[in-house]
Design a protein that fits this description.
Elements (H helix, E strand, L loop, with lengths): L11 E3 L5 E3 L3 H20 L5 H21 L21 H15 L8 E2 L5 H26 L4 H24 L6 E2 L4
Antiparallel strand pairs: 1-2, 3-4
Pathway: Cofactor biosynthesis; adenosylcobalamin biosynthesis; adenosylcobalamin from cob(II)yrinate a,c-diamide: step 2/7
GO biological process, one term: cobalamin biosynthetic process
Family: Belongs to the Cob(I)alamin adenosyltransferase family.
Length: 188
């Protein structure tokens, strides 16, 4: 299979199922931002981090591919004629619960927050904070897309919870590397 197809040279791209849309559409922006987030998670994994965190990130990356595939599929093409889903694995409530469990576990290992903190720490912690911001953008775009077409609510909920996970991930990585959190004190 070739990487280039030349079918997008005129500013359109094909959705799952064959429909072509402008590369500037909200749909493309939504799943493109999910792809950007996925790549950023790969960057975090390129650092030496706790192997358990790396495993969690791999699971999340696979989930983001599924989420992106669903966003890239027109609603009327989500199911085959026999009623089976076109995308075999989609984001489910169980995936959201898994994120919540990971968040709770990580928070249990961290000092309780009493103030907002400035994003930072070492490089992988800082990248986790950037990934959180990308995730929030993906969520905003997906909310906008849901105003134009039907989107399963689990997708928005997953992105919302994932941004929380990425915030705690950044804190955990910084703590693991003995980086003190810098508190934001209003007026300072």
């Amino acid at each position: 299979m070739k990487v280039y197809t030349k079918t997008g040279d005129k500013g359109t791209t094909g959705l799952y199922g064959g429909t072509r849309v402008s590369k500037n559409s909200l749909k493309i922006d939504s799943y493109g931002t999910v792809d950007e987030l996925n790549s950023y998670l790969g960057l975090i994994r390129s650092y030496e981090i706790d192997p358990a965190l790396e495993e969690e990130i791999i699971i999340i990356q696979k989930g983001l591919f599924n989420l992106g595939a669903e966003l890239a599929t027109p609603v009327d093409k989500l199911y085959l004629a026999n009623g089976k889903p076109r995308i075999p694995k989609t984001i489910s409530e169980e995936d959201i619960v898994q994120l919540e469990e990971w968040i709770d576990d990580l928070e249990g290992q961290l000092e309780q927050l009493t103030h907002f903190i400035l994003p930072g720490g070492n490089q992988p912690a800082s990248h986790a904070h950037v990934a959180r911001c990308i995730c929030r953008r993906a969520e905003r775009l997906t909310v906008g897309l849901a105003e134009e077409e039907e989107i399963r609510p689990e997708l928005q909920k997953y992105l919302n919870r994932l941004s929380d996970y990425l915030f705690v991930l950044g804190r955990k990585i910084a703590t693991d590397n003995n980086h003190e959190e810098v508190k934001w004190i209003p007026g300072e």
